[in-house]
């Protein structure tokens, strides 16, 4: 079922993760118009690909619910949240808590009542205490990021409702790589959670220095002494970024700041924060590859070059490790995904000076990546192999380990290697 009108705007707000205000979003009418009026040839190609695919994880669950083959259970103060996460295979340990008033449900959000975000490799789910909706976004193999909502009460309670194109007014622009996607930012906030300044004018991802991350977010975990903006509230009208570690750094417990019984946990794991920030922009770049697959060769080459560079963590910001979270998230994350004959995996953490032990993103195992149109997939692997072979940015033993892992865990890729 597709939802239209003002209610849809609530879902559109979800992926403006810690954005300063609607005015700061890159909402460009010309870009939206070009998306909604796709050229006939490209539209036909996309429709053909869509017919070959089985949709995305949320769409498949929606079809099960509508056909009566699945039903969600509501329980406790979080309503349908726990059962929805279970059916979408999203771990509760991935919970990140944002308290900045940067969502269209901002009247319900603040330091004493943060918004909770959960995610896996393809799906993001947001829950707000007292909010009317659970908000969902998913990476679609053909159509890029898709938005859904689930009402917590009323006649549509427990149903997944797909968003209207109106949501793309803010979630399609320069900050999302020119495609429907995610906006991850960090913003200094006041005592009530109101934005008081942009910590960084760029999207937050694995290239962002730690000192510019997590403004407006709770963060639980430990690391070597360093500055970040997590757990930080400013009393200044025009605040400056802290230059020295503050009382919000290296916290392992923030349960005294809000009522944890209204959530699935009182944690906002630092390792989950790092992974979410890596993959939100990764999904945007991957969606751009998908979109460019139905465009010109030049557009596709440009999109693939950017995605390859990102997947290989070129320009990754150094981390102040050792970094340790407060939940089972890191262990759960590392247990999933394929391993080679030596037990190595692209999901193994480093968490000393960088995020992953082997600097190649696990997003190459994602549903969207695996369903890339054949021409795009071939071009990606050709460029990936060339870039990995140009080892000026990586030690030879690590590059060789990445090659060996991929050869054994990605079907049919070995024959493409020289």
At a glance:
With 418 residues, this protein is an alpha+beta fold. It has helices at residues 6-14, 29-36, 40-52, 57-67, 81-88, 270-292, 297-311, 329-335, 367-370, 374-389, 396-409; strands at 16-17, 96-98, 115-119, 123-127, 133-140, 144-151, 161-162, 183-184, 187-189, 195-198, 217-218, 221-222, 324-325. The strands form four sheets. Strands 7-6-5-4-3-2-11 form a seven-stranded antiparallel sheet, sandwiched between helices. Strands 1-8 form a two-stranded parallel ribbon.
Can you describe what's shown?
The protein is an alpha+beta fold and 418 residues long. Helices cover 31% and strands 11% of the residues. The strands form 4 sheets. The chain has a 7-stranded antiparallel sheet with strand order 7-6-5-4-3-2-11, sandwiched between helices. A two-stranded parallel sheet has the order 1-8. The protein is globular. The chain starts with 5 loop residues before the first helix and ends in a 9-residue tail after the last helix. Mean pLDDT is 85; it is low at 3-41.
